[in-house]
Amino acid sequence: MDRRALFAMSQKLPSFAARSYAFQEYVPIRNWIGGKWVDGSTGQWLAVENPRHGMAMGKVTLSGAPDVAAAVEAAKIALPAWKNTPMRERAQVLFRLKALMERDLEELCWLVSHENGKTFAEGKGDVEKGIECVEFAIGLPMMADGGQLDVSRGVNCRTVHEPLGIVAGIVPFNFPVMVPLWMVPNALMAGNAFILKPSEVVPYGAMKLAELLKEAGLADGLFNVINGQREAVEAVVDHPDIQAVGFVGSSKVAKILYGRGAATGKRMLCLGSAKNHVIVVPDADVELTASNVIASSFGCAGQRCMASSLMVGVGDVQPIVDGMVAHVKKIRLGEDMGSIISGASRERILTYIAQAESLGAKVLVDGRGASVDGSPGHWIGPTVLDNVTIEMPAGCEEIFGPVLSIVRQPTLDAAIALQNKSLYANGAAIFTTRGAVARHAIEKLEAGMVGVNVGVPVPREPFSFGGFNASKFGHGDMTGWDGFRFWSRPKKITEKWAVYADASWMS
User: Fold this and answer.
1) DSSP-based three-state secondary structure for 298
2) Which of 133, 300, 305, 396 is flagged as catalytic?
3) Which domain does 139 fall in, by range?
């Protein structure tokens, strides 16, 4: 029986029908274990809310240690054959996954929009960046040769990359498709079986990935999805047969999970929070800077770790600030910017704004009280705060919402010093028209990703994603070549097949 016939016989779920922002209910979400949808062992369910409407579009099963153990057992059955599959043949599954994602692009984008609250365009960006990660992994057979060299007469050394075995990823709510695909393609290409624990508030993207990988021909058990909350996360990190875990979320949780997993000998890479500084100097191009900083700050309603949430104005940059305010006032809530993920997040963001105002910040644009057509969804309009100091919570803590705080500094070095004193060092950027200024900032800024006249300095494949300081716990980066190396281990091989009369001590 061919691959398509087998897929047709599986528990295929109905397509997501929405093609607009109108509210759409969808199916309950179960765990995906060994190629089957199964309920979690806890017997408990959680409502999955459409943040735009503030209404439940479905529900998700909650899981515990028995479910993780079941996923591990399914992975053990499938893993030996996959490990012995040549990398070029593994890549064929990802070729088909890419084609299927492109086939279902519109459905995937609308699904992301509904479960996350993004606009359709932002949902499309999420999915298309995920496809780019798949494309990179497809190319790994051309890169992962490991290298070899005759190190002496008759002696050759080479490196091969072996799979770790069963690995796992724990991912956040803000990019339901992209962040899982930071991990899954590279891990599968390395020859591993993968267990994904998606955010319980946006589980539909992972559900669709499971179906598409099944349709692409991935053997049952090589990709499993466990839904749940803290109990499921801890079970993943604690399971002795899971060899490596990737995590993306807050620094508080990243630090805890890194320590917990590393104590068991697991390989851990945990990405955390950010407070990205964007430095603006007086010679910066007014329109370029204003439009790019605003796009960075308010894209995805500021709910992304690469949002430029803190602008540091050096000297007289008032014309640029005025241009930014003009751009902000043109943003159409619900069309250009989506909703906040939950009511609790909305209240937390509002607290930051009120607190900053009470401490002396000036509210240049006030998004409090904004809504879309009277919707009960979780809305905050884009908000700009001026005269913020880094002593204020809005100046030093990750707000993760549509709030841009402006801090003023007299010199470029003083602005750079602010970034370098930050607890976080995910990304930083500078806007200038002078090469010498840009070069100085690049050399002095202490951040994992630095941009020049780019508000969101996220590198594209094959360049990797990852920050410094408390923005990352572990070594290496999550994507690109570093990502592949995280999910594999290098085996060094030294061979001798010929004996020479003039051989050196090594041969």
Assistant:
1) helix
2) 305
3) 24-272+471-491
Average pLDDT, rounded, for the chain? 95
> Tokens in use for 467?
């920050």
Instruction: Give the Cα separation of 501 and 85 in Å (integer).
Output: 41
φ and ψ of 38, to 5 deg = -135, 150
d(CA 490, CA 327): 50
Q: What percent of the chain has pLDDT over 70?
A: 96
Helix 120-138 crosses helix 87-103 at what angle (to 10 degrees)?
A: 160
Cβ contacts of 89 within 8 Å, gap of 6 or more: none
Is-catalytic flag, 396? Answer: no
Decide: pTM greater than 0.90. Answer: yes
CB 279 within 8 A of CB 412: yes
Of 215, 273, 211, 276, nearest to 248 by C-alpha is 273
Task: Kindly report, residue by residue over 34-49, the tens digit of the pLDDT.
Answer: 999 999 999 999 999 9
Tell me how far apart the alpha carbons of residues 279 and 416 are, in angstroms, rounded to a whole number: 8
Examine the domain organization and report whether 292 and 181 are in the same domain.
Answer: no
Which of 246, 392, 371 is closest to 310 using CA atoms? 392
Q: What is the pLDDT of residues 84-122, one digit of tens each?
A: 999 999 999 999 999 999 999 999 999 999 999 999 999
Residue 318 inside a domain? The answer is: yes
Average pLDDT over residues 275-298: 97
Rounded Cα distance between 155 and 133, Å, is 38
The pLDDT value given to residue 506:
61
486: CB partners within 8 A, 6+ apart: 186, 244, 246, 267, 269, 476, 478
3-state secondary structure of 148: strand
- Claim to verify: residue 283 and residue 170 sit in the same structural domain: no
296 and 263 belong to one structural domain = no
> Residue 146: is its pLDDT beyond 90?
no
Phi-psi region of 325 (alpha: psi -120 to 50; beta: other; left: phi over 0): alpha
